[in-house]
Amino acid sequence: MSEEKRVGIVLVSHSAEVAAAVAALAKGLAGGADSVAVAPAGGTEGGGLGTSAELISAAAASVDRGAGVAVLTDLGSAVLTVKALLAEDELPDDTRLVDAPFLEGAVAAVVTASTGADLAAVEAAATEAYDYRKV
Amino acid sequence: MLDADFFRRWMTATAASVDREAERLTALDAAIGDADHGSNMRRGFAAVQAELDKETPGTPGAVLMLAGRLLISTVGGASGPLYGTLLRRTGKALGEVPEVTEAQFAEALRTGVQGVMKLGGAAAGDKTMVDALLPAVDALGDGFAAARTAAEQGAEATVPLLARRGRASYLGERSIGHQDPGATSSALLVAALAETAEG
């Protein structure tokens, strides 16, 4: 699979800083995952805490390489806004809201996407992050 | 019969009402949420109003579809996708006809409320906007004034409920004793509908 065809990852948080930092962390921990397009969509367009449909749509379009887009979210309106955009067909074809813990799921998704895995495998890896017990 | 202008006036009346009541909505949200419901709703419906002032679509369905899209893109909180879905599903169910009967509208609104319930995973009694909207839809067969009363009573009846959805659900028992902000703004939406019908 060519590098251009990797699954794109969008990270949606109520906070621009959280989304950007989790994106940087996931790419850093994935090591050499520069081939994976990861876009944060955090906060409102005005820079406040919240969710922006415009930022999410723009982020999804920016990481779409034709192999699908996995969207991970934090809470509440982030989840609902992505679901509403999917229902309205306002995100690229083959975009999925992935049911996963935000940070751990983002790391798993970016690492898996960097191997050239398909969208279903990226989604499965991110969701499996729920099973990682710490105690 | 209800035409596109009726639905434009409903949205205008809602924008005015949300603007008037924004402080109250935010105060209710401060008690059990994150204190942004009034400002979020005001921003969303102001955007709807501004767009409808420029150009009103020709059918009832198109007015509500446009309003719903704007709410999803401008509100910035959970009420954006929730109210956006309510209006878009309702608008879609109305189809592309230039006028609809009250019965057709009641049926379409029920579809919209079901869309909200599916999106948010909320049922009746979860202390959400559904607790105002469902009674309103059920009462709509008896007229717009009956729907307004049902929505207001439904919103007031959320006070003793335990929140099971949204941020308020994290508060558990401490959510009891507060009126739900979403149910309150939903009652405003339905009251604006009755106001519009009264002319």
TrEMBL record, chain A:
<dbReference type="InterPro" id="IPR036662">
    <property type="entry name" value="PTS_EIIA_man-typ_sf"/>
</dbReference>
<dbReference type="InterPro" id="IPR039643">
    <property type="entry name" value="DhaM"/>
</dbReference>
<feature type="domain" description="PTS EIIA type-4">
    <location>
        <begin position="6"/>
        <end position="135"/>
    </location>
</feature>
<protein>
    <submittedName>
        <fullName>PTS fructose transporter subunit IIA</fullName>
    </submittedName>
</protein>
<dbReference type="InterPro" id="IPR004701">
    <property type="entry name" value="PTS_EIIA_man-typ"/>
</dbReference>
<dbReference type="GO" id="GO:0009401">
    <property type="term" value="P:phosphoenolpyruvate-dependent sugar phosphotransferase system"/>
</dbReference>
<keyword id="KW-0808">Transferase</keyword>
<dbReference type="GO" id="GO:0016020">
    <property type="term" value="C:membrane"/>
</dbReference>
<dbReference type="GO" id="GO:0019563">
    <property type="term" value="P:glycerol catabolic process"/>
</dbReference>
<dbReference type="GO" id="GO:0047324">
    <property type="term" value="F:phosphoenolpyruvate-glycerone phosphotransferase activity"/>
</dbReference>
<dbReference type="Pfam" id="PF03610">
    <property type="entry name" value="EIIA-man"/>
</dbReference>
From TrEMBL, chain B:
<protein>
    <submittedName>
        <fullName>Dihydroxyacetone kinase subunit L</fullName>
    </submittedName>
</protein>
<keyword id="KW-0808">Transferase</keyword>
<keyword id="KW-0418">Kinase</keyword>
<dbReference type="GO" id="GO:0005829">
    <property type="term" value="C:cytosol"/>
</dbReference>
<dbReference type="Pfam" id="PF02734">
    <property type="entry name" value="Dak2"/>
</dbReference>
<dbReference type="GO" id="GO:0004371">
    <property type="term" value="F:glycerone kinase activity"/>
</dbReference>
<dbReference type="InterPro" id="IPR036117">
    <property type="entry name" value="DhaL_dom_sf"/>
</dbReference>
<feature type="domain" description="DhaL">
    <location>
        <begin position="5"/>
        <end position="195"/>
    </location>
</feature>
<dbReference type="GO" id="GO:0019563">
    <property type="term" value="P:glycerol catabolic process"/>
</dbReference>
<dbReference type="InterPro" id="IPR050861">
    <property type="entry name" value="Dihydroxyacetone_Kinase"/>
</dbReference>
<dbReference type="InterPro" id="IPR004007">
    <property type="entry name" value="DhaL_dom"/>
</dbReference>
<dbReference type="InterPro" id="IPR012737">
    <property type="entry name" value="DhaK_L_YcgS"/>
</dbReference>
